[in-house]
Amino acid sequence: MPLPERVLVGKIASAHGIKGQVKVRYFTEGPQEFLAYPNFTSADGKKNYTLKKHGIQGEMLIVSIDGITDRNQAELLRGTELYTSAGAIERKENQWSYRELTGLEARLENGKSYGKVIGVHNFGAGDLIDIELPTGKTEMLPFNDQFTGEVHVEQGYLVVLPPDYVEANNEEVDE
Q1: Alpha-helix runs per DSSP H in 45-128
Q2: What average pLDDT does this structure show over 52-58?
Q3: What is the C-alpha separation between 5 and 70, in angstroms, rounded?
Q4: N or C: which end of the chain has fewer CB within 10 A?
Q5: 141: domain CATH number?
């Protein structure tokens, strides 16, 4: 599966102050990694954003964006997703983009199909994989070593390790 052309690395959460600054939630290991990217664009790559760091507030970066000079302009950017080119990202071993994981088959350790990854989310407490089960129901599992085994993007699947009670409930539904 080829890398996506652009990768989501942050999202503008809100305006900050009256001079056009915004708060950005970054989807990288830390603010330094986020700010190390050479450029930020819209999802389609048609809009470019040049950011300048002004501070950190909790888990948010406070930045100014070239051309944005007041709070009203900054408010209009709320919810704007910030992308960078996939080639700009230095990938570490066992690191995948949400887009690469979405669509993978979720398998149990014994190789039995468990469902399909329909999304990956982060609501602030870590990544969650959203799996559509064969019954049509969905469930989310933390994307960590306790609930996820090996990831084989090239082969189109990942191994999930659901708690025993989840697996038992799904088997009851299958019968």
Answers
A1: 71-75, 98-101
A2: 92
A3: 32
A4: C
A5: 2.30.30.240
Give the closest residue to 112 by CA, choosing from 160, 175, 172.
Answer: 160
* Average pLDDT of the residues of the chain: 84
| Domain extent for 68 | 6-87
pLDDT in tens, 24-34: 999 887 888 88
CA distances (Å), 5 to each of 84, 136, 171, in order? 9, 31, 39
- Separation between Cα atoms, residue 117 and residue 24, nearest integer Å: 27
Q: What is the spatial distance between Cα 133 and Cα 113, in angstroms, rounded to a whole number?
A: 9
Between CA 131 and CA 115 the distance in angstroms is: 6
**Residues 72 and 116 reside in one and the same domain:** no
- At 141-150, the pLDDT tens digits run 998 888 988 8
Judge whether 140 and 92 are in contact, CB under 8 Å: no
Does 82 share its domain with 40?
yes
The answer to the question of residue 93 being in a domain is no
For residue 19, give the 3-state DSSP assignment: coil
Count of domains observed in the chain: 2
Residue with tokens 């999202």: 11
pTM: 0.56
Contacts of 8 (CB under 8 A, 6+ apart): 27, 43, 81, 82, 83, 97, 98, 99
